[in-house]
Fold this protein.
Amino acid sequence: MSLATIRAMQLADSGFPSGVFAYSWGLESALAEGQVCKRSLADWVALDLRTRWHRFDRIALAGGFRLTGEALSGWFETVDALMPVETQRRDSAQAGDALFASARALRIAMDPGALAAQAAGVGHFAVAHGVFLRACGLDLGAALETSALSLARGAFSAAVRLGIAGAITTQRDLLALAPLIAELATVPDAQDLPSGAMPLPDVALMRPRQGRLFIN
């Protein structure tokens, strides 16, 4: 097993302090309101991968991986402008802040362009994740696979912590989603821009609810 593979496995772990452990990206509200249940959880995660991750996060991450300096700062600003939901924009920047903090604690140097974007309040997680994974020594393909797997593992971990699904069930569902993750984790064209949204999670993300376990 190569060192890069070992690093990718570590970085895709839902327990890795990437900054998103406290976020369910709308899943908590959707579960509470009956929009998702144990039986449809895997379908929800698959739809999230096909829409939000593949159309938006994948492309945002690739830009963060490829660019440096002022061009990278500009990419953070572009991604910020393309986020249609203010709550999503805020939470994404907060999750990015947590990733920057983890990078400092782990002594992983982030590109100056990324640090400038964070200082400007637009250090969004998906872009910062690309910068971070590049700094960890992954290639772009492995970084995208790590990101997609992290999203799925994070969603299933949230469902377990919410008491909706069990660990064995979610591992079975994650295994079943592996071919989809491999299919979607393709390297985008350098000219692509993030686009599209998943309306149901976006609405669930914005909906206020008392007694939350997660930030959103």
Observations:
- The mean pLDDT is 83.
- The radius of gyration is 16 Å.
